[in-house]
Amino acid sequence: MRKSGAFTLIELLVVIAIIALLMAILMPSLQRVRTQARAVACQSNLKQWGVIWAMYTDDNHGMFPKRGASTGRWIDVLFDYYYKDDKFRVCPAATKIAFPQYPPGASSTLEVGGDALTSWGRLAESSGRPAGTYGSYGVNGWVYQPAEDTLYGKPAQFFWRTPNVKRAAQVPLFLDCWFWCGWPEHTDTPPKSDDRSARYPGDDNAMNRFCINRHQQAINGVYLDYHVDKIWLKALWRQQWSKPPRFDVGAPKPNWETESPWMTSFKDD
Fold first, then answer.
1. What is the pLDDT, as a whole number, of residue 202?
2. Cα dist. 9→4, 13, 14, 17, 18 in Å?
């Protein structure tokens, strides 16, 4: 009698079980590859931003924008350089927008701000920039030219003003951020958690705007010399954000265990 060439039910179940096991083994690896691909694409975006900042300073006598309390924001003065392409304004890990459609009246930092996986915006119209602007990167506010002797209470002598400085490779310019700007201090405390509810709304303690777990314990950033690098979150307190001695890279770091337990096991610089 001719034997059937069909699989038995038991054989089919064994094959299905093997496929399920292989999928379970492969899925974490595939997820890691996907995460790494997003980080690489983010760095590619920031390289384009480095070109944009270089173009702006070349067009403006080697100087960064002149910033007042309500004037000179990069999202306004650089609009003609970046408006043509939405995609490179957003890290691939943060494509969700805080406000998919701009609601009139939403103007506070927390309302328009994003988080590790959410872009900031959409913003109201301002200085020729149309309503609806959004992004997932923010500028180190210390690179601006202050329009007055102080800017948000910060003395003008500690601002960089131009990319043509010593130690340019150590000065962050433009980075992953849940807001569009920040003025970090070495005394800033880290966020209590990476949750959206832990965001701090003020312009002080601004390190928490950059301290977001967007790229596996790190963010990406472009520096004043326009190179792009991965920055471990704990190493944010070792970047030369403002001119010394205003920002002391040798100052004691936060106590991770008591101030930010979620970062305790993170890689250190």
1. 84
2. 13, 6, 9, 12, 14
